[in-house]
Amino acid sequence: MKIKTNKNEILNPLLVAQYFISPTSTLPLLSNILFEVEENTLSVSATDMDMSVKINSKIEKVEETGKTTIPKKVISILKEAPDSEIKLESDKNDNIKLQWKGGYCKIQGLPAEDFPLLKIENNKLSKIKLSQKILKEMIKYTSFAALKDSTKRNLNGIFLKFENDTIEAVSTDAHRLSFYKTETKLDIKTKFEYIIPLKTINEISKIIEDKEDKEIELNLYEKLIEFKLENIDIISRIIDENYPNYNQVIPKDFNVIAVVKKSEFEGALKRVSMISSDKTKIVTLKFDKNKMFVNAQAQDEGEAYEELDIKYDGDPIDITFNSLYLLDVLKVAETDEIEIKLNSSTDPGVVSNSGSSNFIYVIMPIRK
Question: Which of 90, 112, 255, 314 could connect to 67 by a Cys-Cys bridge, CB 3.0–4.6 Å?
């Protein structure tokens, strides 16, 4: 294999592929990136055997086609290389040479023939096309509430339901739940439900754009899901487990609905929670006529208190939450005002964008 091209045409696909490499794999090949050159196309692939990516890009000069696998450290070398033409070549023993103006680097690769990419299943169940903006928004509103470890595998991802022309995205870590619903033309004839691993979701979020006119294609299989962009193809295993019945968790009716200015509430929470315990970050919210009082206490440390003007005309009520869970939802809320909906001091509370029903955030209170 022998190619000549500018530095970024090699480096940019590598920067995407590096996040699909397993950091803990004992298989040397899985620590490398697959490099394939055909005609004037460079294909860069990586996998951790749960998800894989393939990036295709055009290159200027192909002197010899071929393939090899290169170590991840090549990325660091290319970052420091001058912005000039890069010559990359490999021989039959996978000895790799990178050459730039005034210098070169030799590094050992591994044979490409046994590189273990995820294989697409034959029985495609359905194909869905939607704007990247819709998918990015669904991820934004849900990924932060998913369980961050695999102690409960079914919670370590985002649940997606495709039905008629509706998509529902849900995440939970058992202490809170985030629900997002959107309407779009799906052109499907049956319902599909998938749990997409959080690590896959996080990588897709880095790649897709917040644009209506940019499209992404989702190909649905029994055990896999494929995300296809213009020059990037991502394949992921799904989490093949049952997801909790989230409709039972989301309250439908409320005794208390308060409207709060997001920026004021966020500032108060940040200040007050500095006093609360480092582990639990407990804050108590007390609602009274057109007022909300935010309070935190820590034994032997002190107390903090703030009073906010809000829209509320109900009976007095107080409830205690983990302030970090509240701050998480305020980071993604898009309206200047948010709604806080409650039934009692011991029932789950709901936070949502004011005047919108497509996003619901359910948070469990802390019982003192």
Answer: 112
